[in-house]
Amino acid sequence: MLLSTLTKKIISQYILKNEVNCNNIVILSLFRQSHSDIKVPDFSFYRRKSLKSPNSITKDSEDQRKAFSGTVASVAALVGLYAIKAEINRDVMFMAPSADVLALARIEIKLSDIPEGKNITFKWRGKPLFVRRRNEEQIKSSKDVPLSILRDPEKDEDRCPNSKFLVVIGVCTHLGCVPIPDAGDFGPGGYYCPCHGAHYDASGRTRKGPAPINLVIPEHRFLNDDTLVVG
């Protein structure tokens, strides 16, 4: 659209009044073009088959689309849960004890190395471990003790399922000193704590002194007649 006559007249008066160099002024004709050569993209490839027709009603395929969306959401949730599980497992394994620590958590003891009637001290988890091969006299003296006179009543059969062997942690239950094997007032085969005078019998039960409970029995099992596993 060309400039109107009034607009041209105003510009001419401005040029004459201000002595503007006409060579530096370019008067353009303003007009609007119609971009009729642009093609609208065809998105039918990305549309669902049920909605490609311009006459289709979205409500007719609503259940199908909801089912598909629900399936996608469920799969995404399962993948997310699996990723969380893997991360938790990784963190737990990172905090788990190393192989060398686990190796020290259990020990195997060859029972044939322990003389009859004697106590052998081993180191287990940083603590002394007493393993005694009891003779008949020690077994009999432990079984003949009435439970009524014990401060911490326990049967000898419960503490020593294998009557020939006593397995206890060598730490006094009073204040944590290490008792002396084959000492004290309740031999043969008893224990005596020199720190405060606690006495234990051949079953590791407290009999005299300040110890409130019996010597602790760790988790253990006999693999065979000659192998003891502690831990």
Give the overall silhouette: rod-shaped
Q: Mind telling me the CATH superfamily name of the domain at 107-230?
A: Rieske [2Fe-2S] iron-sulphur domain
Order of the strands making up the biggest sheet: 5-6-7-8
> What percent of the residues sit in helical stretches (DSSP H or I)?
25-40%
Mean model confidence by pLDDT: 83
Coarse structural class: alpha+beta
C-alpha end-to-end distance: 99 Å
Q: How do the SSEs run, as a string of H and E?
A: HHHEEEHHEEEEEEE
Kindly provide the radius of gyration, computed on alpha-carbon positions and rounded to a whole number of angstroms.
47 Å
CATH structural architecture of the domain at 107-230? 3-layer Sandwich
- The total count of strands amounts to 10
Number of helices: 5
Q: What is the multimeric organization of the chains shown?
A: single chain
- Biggest sheet character: 4 strands, antiparallel
| Share of β-strand residues | 15-25%
Can you tell me the CATH class of the domain at 107-230?
Mainly Beta
Low-confidence stretches: 25-31
Say what the CATH topology of the domain at 107-230 is.
Rieske Iron-sulfur Protein
